Amino acid sequence: MLLDDFHPIILNAGKPEHLSSWNYTGVSSPFARIYCIADGTASLRVGGRLYELRPGYLYLVPPFTSHDNICGSPFSHYYLHFYEDNSAPGFSGSIFDKYDFPVEVPSQPIDELMFSCLVGMNPSLSLEDLDPDSYNDNESLLHNISSEKERALSLRMESRGIVLFLLSRFLYHAQLKDQATDERVQRAVSYIFLHLSDPAVDVETLAHEACLSVNQFIRTFRKQTGMTPLKFLTNKRIEKAQLLLLERNMSNKDLAYAVGYEDPAYFCRVFSNIVGVSPQQYKTKSLL
Description:
288 residues, alpha+beta, six-stranded antiparallel sheet, 12 strands, 21% strand
């Protein structure tokens, strides 16, 4: 993945003081979070593993990752929420689809300074209410994306530089999800992201793109990604649908067509099976 392909949009940044009040379960958002612990301790549960949040470390929660925040004592931390701009020309997939990032990495003294600078430069990005239900919705996402694009170019450039700096701490320890010496699977993955709205994309199309037979392609893809090509394609289409529901007011029919489904009813069934609720229920929940 080239650096030119990564376009972070800063949504929120701040440094709150907690008095045993940072307790939220089942939080999942279309944006990523980075935490830097200033003082005290709390816990973060991601993927069934419990991490003790403590000074001297940075923590990362990728987008669409369910997690729990647990706090039972005074606690202070910096937070950064950023969203990847998937409307950029030639967008070929999220950096989180191409790398397995660690949740916890050691920090350096300059990291907290970078966070302090980011928060100081952008006081308007601090959340008034830290309850995810108060900002984890369509209206807040659209407002923050629009506000970020309206800020001075010099401020945006400096702020994005800090985001890249902080994310590089995790990237240093990250592993490519496709470890093959050739780029056949990566070509197929890039093709998926560039053609999510094309209903003609199927396993045969992707195998041809990878220059492999269908059976060999399925085996190679599964070995490198941990899932079949069809499941990967379906997951990315539904993730795209979730983002579109947050960003736009779309009917089920238009939404289905936008992510490559010709049958809206079938799309709704697939969406419900993966997300747990129907598209319109997901939309309504995000607006609460």
